[in-house]
Amino acid sequence: MNSTLQTDVAIIGAGPGGYATALRAAELGKSVTLIERDAHVGGTCLLRGCIPSKALISAAHTMDAMNHAATMGIQVTAPSVDEAKLAQYREQTVTTMTSGLAELLAARHIQMVHGQAALQSDGTILVTPAPDATQVRVGQSLDALHDAGTQVTIQATDTVLATGGRPRPLPNVPFGGAVLDSTAALGLEHLPKRAAIVGAGSVALEFASMWRSMGAEVTLLVRHDTPLSHAHHRSAVVLTRELKRRGIKIVAHSQVTETTPGESGEGVHVTYTSSLDNETYGIDADVLLVAIGRDPNTDMPWMQDLDIDITDAGLIVTDDLGQTSMPHVWAVGDITPGHGLAHRAFEQGITIAEAIAGLNPKPVDERTIPSVIFTTPEFASVGRTVQEAQTIDGCTDVTETLYPVMGNARMVMERANGSMAVVTGCRPGHPDQREVLGVHIVAPMASELIGQAEHVLGAHTPLSDAARLIEPHPTFSEMFGEALLKADGRPFNTL
Ligand SMILES: Cc1cc2nc3c(=O)[nH]c(=O)nc-3n(C[C@H](O)[C@H](O)[C@H](O)COP(=O)(O)OP(=O)(O)OC[C@H]3O[C@@H](n4cnc5c(N)ncnc54)[C@H](O)[C@@H]3O)c2cc1C
Ligand SMILES: NC(=O)c1ccc[n+]([C@@H]2O[C@H](COP(=O)([O-])OP(=O)(O)OC[C@H]3O[C@@H](n4cnc5c(N)ncnc54)[C@H](O)[C@@H]3O)[C@@H](O)[C@H]2O)c1
């Protein structure tokens, strides 16, 4: 028997955008129905993105530490990887996170629907069985669902689209065999010994760094002159130098044109052209990871039929609070223009829930969203470069202060290299107040340091006040404190 459900807020997709909206809306007293086609909640981030990748990267850090132990006088025999145990560790990390989230959703009395949803232009949502199921299933948690028929209709006052994205293939090179997307790469039974990677963003660099730490020969095929060509230039150059120093081969100005099975049918032969000399080259590898971005899940016919604005890139246009051009329909996360990051989706989801509940939330400030790449060393960035501050925001008196990170005691102890740049200047209308406009770091623990930078930047703290922050000694965070002092014209442990 098919059924109809009534709810204040229906959300399609239980990734970071969808579940953040659900949690906040329920907290604000709304009845919430969360529809997910996967067997578990969490979306890309928990199931096949942030969490499994960072579990593997944590293991890679342990490998790095053991490999560097001898420089501190600690002798260890050459470490090796038990691949089955590593996979178990990754899977258990994911399970712990997804079951914790499922419990939280249940505790907030959010109704779960397991199935594939389609919003109709009259505002109803039709749910059909998920690809792996014959029935739509409904209940308080994805672990305790009952069959609800082959079609469930949901009548919601507000609907939130949170359908996320999927890996983008190279033109003419479909995924399959030894040509992997990030999901397949995370699930590999055996770590590659020779890995080729095409792309130069977060996925490409994190896998390059992690596989290298695990002992692979890694070749990164980059189409521009450097990885992260759109990021803060100096940081991109420093990170590139460090990755090369660790033995990662970076082939710039290359474009993959074809892949064929490797000799004896194993692995892959990758053909690429160089835009420097227009010559064609080839490399052999166990796998080719294609990491050239993600496509938004907005190309389904039902979504195309809705009266909502979608850009040529397939991204849903919303107002500052996440509302689409269709009344009572909202969009969150990777299907909206901007950084494809979980923490951005969290903040957008909270904002949408508060707007639906009639609160008056502040729009998400895209400028203050930090981005991190979990390489060794890490790359973390928030805010503007000098050029962006001048041309996009119209800031004046903009300067960049470079702090020599090798003067930091913890950097010396770790034998680490990196860079720290702080961009300061005055926002339009505030000519007398110098503020931090951007912070760009390459260093161990940069992922943790960037939160502090975000607070200073987001709160528009005057530079002279920010520079008074007292950092504990000896820590990596002293680099940020010292950079602020230098930017404020009072360099301490540096010239
Ligand atoms: C390898 C990798 C590593 C990453 N690491 C990080 C990181 O360290 N930090 C970070 O901030 N970000 C990271 N990201 C990005 C992050 O995962 C995404 O930004 C985030 O998951 C986006 O959340 P979302 O809710 O928009 O979409 P998603 O997480 O993609 O969730 C969308 C959900 O909607 C469901 N869905 C889609 N259509 C339907 C439908 N019709 N009916 C029912 N359900 C549907 C999908 O099954 C999915 O569960 C990483 C991504 C990848 C690929
Ligand atoms: N630590 C993190 O926060 C983290 C980690 C992994 C992924 N993510 C997110 O996941 C999403 C996907 O990451 P990604 O690295 O795949 O995408 P990305 O958009 O970050 O980077 C894609 C890269 O591929 C290059 N590229 C595009 N087309 C190409 C082509 N035809 N040939 C060669 N190179 C090409 C681009 O120049 C760019 O450097 C992003 O939204 C990213 O923010 C975040």
From TrEMBL:
Binding site for FAD: K54, D334
Domain FAD/NAD(P)-binding, first and last residues per copy: 8-349
Organism listed in the record: Bifidobacterium dolichotidis
Positions bound to NAD(+): G199, A200, G201, S202, V203, A204, L205, E206, G293
Family recorded in the similarity comment: Belongs to the class-I pyridine nucleotide-disulfide oxidoreductase family.
Cofactor note: Binds 1 FAD per subunit.
Protein name: Dihydrolipoamide dehydrogenase
Keyword Lipid biosynthesis: no
Disulfide cysteine pairs (residue numbers): C45-C50
GO-annotated molecular function: dihydrolipoyl dehydrogenase (NADH) activity; flavin adenine dinucleotide binding
List of catalytic residues: H473
Pfam family, one: Pyr_redox_2
Keywords in alphabetical order: Disulfide bond, FAD, Flavoprotein, NAD, Nucleotide-binding, Oxidoreductase, Redox-active center
Chain ranges passing through the membrane: none
